[in-house]
């Protein structure tokens, strides 16, 4: 009964809040009266509040530009976790564009949707990401190309770093900075999660969104940690595969350190 009540109240908060936030964000995008990320941060924080999720941050977003953020990926909530406190734009897989709420949120923060399995469109998409970085947008790339279970970092796909190469080859920048970022879900009701419980936060593969959302709303009280590493310059002579391996190693190191010693819940 308590879990059902929690789900009802949380969904009510998201719906009512969204009815207010959507018009404000559309107004911001059309008029430029205020930064587009102002409303988005409030919106992301509201969704995290509904989920009962607390965010802990170590390090900070680099001020270097153009900037590509290479992060691991555990769940759709990663977008809310990052978007709640930093000014970033996201790179997401194409099918997310049609999802309820998440798709709308993505469009309202000018997400770049990519079709990873269609080579004919990959060049245009990489070019769009390159242009956005050149304009000063910090773009978040979930470099595994899929979601993990919260225990391990999957191999980073070097092809997804093509936007960095294209930004340089098209003359948009002499170099691009790539910053490793580790995301981890560490505590449930204040208690550190072990390997068996971390998948509670994970949204894996083709799992349906609504059952996962209901499960998170019913569970409540999760802690997420975000760790920022030092940015690495990527220039004309840089090797894309070596860069992908380096970012993967740095993210894995930060994530493992986080899981071994999670921040206190508050």
From TrEMBL:
Query: SUPFAM superfamilies of this UniProt entry?
Result: Glycerol-3-phosphate (1)-acyltransferase (SSF69593)
Domain (Phospholipid/glycerol acyltransferase) ranges: 67-186
Entry's Gene Ontology BP terms: lipid metabolic process
Pfam families assigned to the protein according to its UniProt record, in alphabetical order: Acyltransferase
Coiled-coil regions in this chain?
Answer: none
Keyword set, alphabetical order: Acyltransferase, Lipid metabolism, Membrane, Transferase, Transmembrane, Transmembrane helix
**Superkingdom, taxonomy of origin:** Bacteria
InterPro entries in the record: Plipid/glycerol_acylTrfase
Q: A single Gene Ontology molecular function, please?
A: acyltransferase activity
Q: Where in the cell is it found?
A: Membrane
Q: Which GO terms describe its cellular component?
A: membrane
Q: Which PANTHER family match?
A: LYSOPHOSPHATIDYLCHOLINE ACYLTRANSFERASE, PHOSPHOLIPID ACYLTRANSFERASE
The molecule here is called Glycerol acyltransferase
């Amino acid at each position: 009964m308590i879990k059902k009540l929690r789900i009802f109240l949380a969904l009510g908060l998201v719906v009512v809040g969204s009815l207010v936030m959507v018009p404000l964000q559309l107004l911001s995008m059309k008029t430029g009266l205020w930064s587009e990320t102002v409303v988005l941060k409030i919106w992301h924080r509201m969704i995290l509040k509904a989920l009962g999720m607390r965010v802990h941050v170590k390090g900070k977003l680099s001020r270097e530009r153009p900037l590509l953020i290479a992060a691991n990926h555990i769940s759709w909530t990663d977008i809310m976790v990052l978007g709640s406190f930093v000014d970033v734009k996201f790179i997401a897989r194409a099918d997310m564009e049609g999802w309820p709420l998440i798709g709308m949120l993505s469009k309202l923060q000018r997400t770049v949707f990519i079709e990873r399995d269609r080579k004919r469109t990959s060049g245009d998409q990489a070019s769009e990401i390159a242009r956005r970085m050149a304009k000063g947008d910090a773009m978040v790339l979930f470099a595994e190309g899929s979601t993990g279970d919260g225990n391990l970092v999957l191999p980073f796909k070097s092809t997804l770093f093509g936007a960095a190469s294209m930004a340089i080859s098209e003359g948009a920048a002499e170099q691009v900075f790539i910053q490793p970022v580790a995301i981890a879900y560490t505590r449930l009701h204040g208690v550190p999660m072990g390997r068996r419980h971390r998948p509670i936060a994970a949204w894996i593969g083709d799992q349906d969104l609504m059952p996962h959302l209901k499960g998170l709303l019913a569970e409540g009280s999760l802690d997420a940690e975000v760790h920022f590493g030092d940015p690495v310059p990527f220039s004309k002579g840089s090797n894309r595969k070596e860069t992908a391996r380096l970012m993967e190693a740095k993210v894995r190191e930060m994530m493992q350190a986080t899981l071994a010693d999670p921040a206190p819940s508050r």
